[in-house]
Amino acid sequence: MYQQKIVQFSALSVGCSLAIGTAIAMSQTLPAISQTAPATQANCIPLRVVDGNGSTTTRKSISSPGVLPGVNNNWNTDFAVPTGRRFTSYIATITPENAAEYDVTINLKYSNNTSTEVFDGDNLALGRFVPYQLKISTPPEVTRQPYQVNLNIRGTLGNTYQARVFACQAR
After folding, report:
1. pLDDT per residue over 103-154, tens digit each?
2. Of the candidates 97, 72, 98, 76, which has an alpha carbon nearest to the alpha carbon of residue 153?
């Protein structure tokens, strides 16, 4: 059994209370749950990894920054949001395989080539094999439905993690 930690942020609170939210994330411990049974609501569906052959989970090791021409990092992972439904929140679950500090940014991407940053956390101390959930609410001023949720996870070179994202409808 593993402990699970949940971080809940609205897009409006991210900028002004990131330090408070991070402190909550580090101190709020919930009852142990199985790592393979994510704590999601009944109104949530898993999103597929773009170019992930239908998978809803990605496993990556952090690469070096793409400082040379033609060399890219692997910090970004996009998850496809299905059309025909209105989602009001998203839950990103990150399960590190190394206890370390990670930098995490979450963006909602739109079909007109714009995006909204809904979470930006630096130096998040994440425990080994402890699933961390980041619940993100769609900003109230955003009326468009995103077509992708982008996770950008950075940290120490070689650290490995698994990630997945759920899209949730209002009840």
Report:
1. 999 999 999 999 999 999 999 999 999 999 999 988 888 888 999 999 999 9
2. 76
What is the span of the domain harbouring residue 115?
5-36+51-168
How far is it, in rounded angstroms, from Cα 114 to Cα 141? 14
* 41 domain residue, yes or no: no
Cα–Cα distance, 3 to 168 (Å, whole number)? 23
* CA geometry: angle 134, 15, 108, nearest 5 deg: 50
CATH number at residue 158: 2.60.120.380
How many domains does the chain fold into? 1
| Predicted confidence (pLDDT) per residue in 92-106, tens digit | 999 999 999 999 999
The number of residues in the chain equals 171
Query: What is the value of pTM for the model shown?
Result: 0.74
Is 44 domain-assigned? no
Residue 125 lies in a domain: yes
* Residue from 97, 99, 117 nearest 107 by CA: 117
Residue 119 lies in a domain: yes
Dihedral sign computed on CA atoms, order 113, 75, 85, 141? negative
Q: Are 22 and 14 in contact (CB under 8 A)?
A: no
